[in-house]
């Protein structure tokens, strides 16, 4: 049986733009574009894990908003993943290159042509139909 991995990732907003990172070549899915995030560790909630991952990988604090309603299960050759996505806003812009070769800001339409990890593709389809300036944050 393939390992089951629980993943969480952030759609980071700035106006009508979102942030994507290109995965470093030595990681699974190297070279593909993704939303910053990673594996949920034992004892963590999805939101706790996401804040930790963003801090570890980008060096930035994040405020999280609502969860996106998109399909959560995807099977790769190496693992079965369950992935949850949350909107977020960065509190700073360090954007360290710990896990990514580059970052790009753009509208979903501008970024849709990149080579995305397949489990993240439905997120772009959803984002292209949203008015991103109207996403509300409670925190
Ligand atoms: N972060 C992130 N991972 C994604 C996205 N889409 C997608 O299919 N994935 C997959 C790729 C990987 O199989 C998995 C994330 O695992 P990972 O290895 O990057 O997690 P991690 O940051 O905790 O890495 P590590 O320390 O264990 O190396 O989820 C996405 O948009 N963002």
Automatic annotation (TrEMBL):
Keywords: DNA damage, DNA repair, DNA replication, Hydrolase, Magnesium, Metal-binding, Mutator protein
InterPro entries linked to this entry: MutT-like (IPR047127), Nudix_hydrolase (IPR020476), NUDIX_hydrolase-like_dom_sf (IPR015797), NUDIX_hydrolase_CS (IPR020084), NUDIX_hydrolase_dom (IPR000086)
CDD domains: NUDIX_MutT_NudA_like
Reported cofactor(s): Mg(2+)
Catalytic activity, EC: 3.6.1.55
Catalytic activity: 8-oxo-dGTP + H2O = 8-oxo-dGMP + diphosphate + H(+)
One Pfam family named in its UniProt record: NUDIX
Domain Nudix hydrolase: 3-130
Protein name: 8-oxo-dGTP diphosphatase
Species of provenance: Ligilactobacillus salitolerans
